[in-house]
Amino acid sequence: MKTLTRLAICIAIMIQGHAYSQSGSMVEIRGGEFIPLYGTKTEVPVGDFLMDVYPVTNAEFLEFVEQNPRWRKSQVKQLFADENYLRSWKNDLAFGSEDLPNSPVTNVSWFAAKNYCECQGKRLPTVDEWEYVAMANETSPDARSEKSYNQYILSWYETPTTFKNTVGNTFKNYWGVYDLHGLVWEWTSDFNSVMIGGESRQDSTGDNNLFCGAAAVGATDLMNYAAFMRYAFRGSVKARYAVKNLGFRCVRDIEKTNL
Amino acid sequence: MKNFKHSKKKLVYVFFLAALVVGVFTSCDKAVAAKENPELMKVYGESEAEMTAPPMVPRPVGKRAATKLIVNMEVVEKEMEMSDGVSYVYWTFDGTVPGSFIRTRVGDEVEFHLKNHPDSKLPHNIDLHAVTGPGGGAESSFVAPGHEAVFTFKTMNPGLYVYHCATAPVGMHIANGMYGLILVEPEGGLEPVDKEYYVMQGDFYTEGENGERGLQAFSMQKAVDEDADYVVFNGKVGGLTGDNALTAKVGETVRLFVGNGGPNLVSSFHVIGEIFDKVYVEGGSLINENIQTTLIPAGGAAIVEFKVEVPGNLVLVDHSIFRAFNKGALGILKVEGEENKKVYGGKIEEKVYNPGVSAAEVTEEETEDAPVANTSLAEKMERGKQIYTQNCLACHQATGNGIPNAFPPLAGSDYLNADVHRAIEVVKFGLTGEIEVNGNVYNSAMPKQNISDEDVANVLTYVYNNWGNNKTEVTAEMVKKAK
Predict the structure, then answer these.
(1) How many domains would you assign to chain A?
(2) Is A104 a member of any domain?
(3) Is residue A15 in a domain?
(4) Containing domain of residue A235, as a range?
(5) pLDDT tens, A98-112?
(6) Angle CA(B297)–CA(B298)–CA(B299) in degrees, nearest 5?
(7) Who is most buried in A225, B13, B433, B448, counting CB within 10 A?
(8) Is B163 a residue whose pLDDT tops 90?
């Protein structure tokens, strides 16, 4: 009987452990073409790739800094992270009392996020890849024209302190990916390739044709507003910035294996 | 000889005058140059700007010289009350809507520190309409959460200016409350007044209709349609009423710095019960006088000044009046002090207006020569009660006790019982001036009552046979005699 109980506990622990490692799991995204927000007239191709189901958590990042001392709070180079880096962490190897193990890690710089992914044999997604997956809702790969989809995103923008939530509590999208909307912003490898300057109104009318008409477009198109704010956010950060509402996840290219 | 001496003296005078004139002109030239070129104004010292939450404003600049002024401002996204039981996530400058009031003078070198709270979800920036430069500073102040942007500018033009966030999507940032006012005073400061306040209008768009309880999300669709659920002063319904009401004392001059953050609606700013003695049109240098309602565009401002002469509640409204009474654009300026009857006499009477009565009077006049039927006391009392209710009750009250200090009592009235003929004359011809009733002095006016002689008799009989009066029965003949 006792052994049975022990076995049961053991199995329970294993299941839990499995659940944790689930956050490191990936799903396949079938590539395609889409027209992103930034107003190019032509479709942008996106190849097939694997994407993390969840953003990287505090627990996962702790493991990473344990193995990589140079990314510890006290040892990180100022060139690669500003003073907000892991700001809430108690010390090099313990996150803050309010940080849950299964909450997304935030206050990490782009350099740190990039290196984390590389150490896993992965990389950060490009803006186009991220946006491509993020245009899905529960049932459709491109829900951008649906009012409820946009309303969900806009209302998240207005909900304070969502970074305290745990991963996997938003919706599972068409591809099987969670938390692209509703939890935290996420780093992308080329986050500043599409610049929204400080002067957003000029971006839409000036010589920056990337944003040609973006702010002036039929404002009834809510999609632009939801996406616009993401691009605005990306435009406001630099690679060494560590921001409380900004986390990340990784992707991996699908290797073509010849059988 | 004498003449020569004289002319020599004259010559000296001429030289002296010429020198003086030249001197005056040169110093005048300098002054003009300095005034026209704030760019060339020297700055003296350095100080941190006093920042105030609405409805207060910082101290006037007075005679101080242009200086290097450090402005610290923090962007905070937070949930606050929009109306009773209704909350909203506001995006704010310094935690209030509108944001802190910034007070500068022309020629100041402003060093602006814009800090974005680490908990903020979004990047923000600031476009100050007082800035001469790209984006009004927006370009230089774009700042991510948990960061601070610093930029400088020189105040070139005196006036009252709006500032607001200009990050994409601009409309949404403004609609969530990101605006405020910056004042650039002219050299020497604005003329001192007794009271200064900061009032700013804004329109809000919520998923739920006006009054729907709970946390309300921003509705982009309604904002695009310019279909506001709330139009308010200082960020919420009741932002300037109840405990938040503005105050002043009789005789004081009040200056309101009024802005309109929009994002969409233009304000027809009006103060019920006052006339603006002065309006700095659109917050600029043009002064208009004796204005009832001034237009304040979205993204614009005005300075209004008025002396409050009588006590009472003045009501600030957007005179697009449904906004005031149905959407919240209403504030109170409570004025306390002595009555001033010369300026405002107050209500002197209130009565039923019934055109039917005068029509009846006309027909009765036609039949005046017809024999008057002898009516019984009971009939007279009944008819008298009707007349009283229609013509007298509003002032003298149903109890006949009147209203202290305004309308004298008829119940147990010494004035009434002393002289019935005088009473008939008062009803028939009216009465103005000071009288004493039961030991109290009344100085008011009662108008002539437009009723027939018979009804005068009826109503007086009713009054005399009630409330402890002396039971005199007044007849139509007695009334007819009074001339």
Answers:
(1) 1
(2) yes
(3) no
(4) 25-253
(5) 899 999 999 999 999
(6) 105
(7) A225
(8) yes
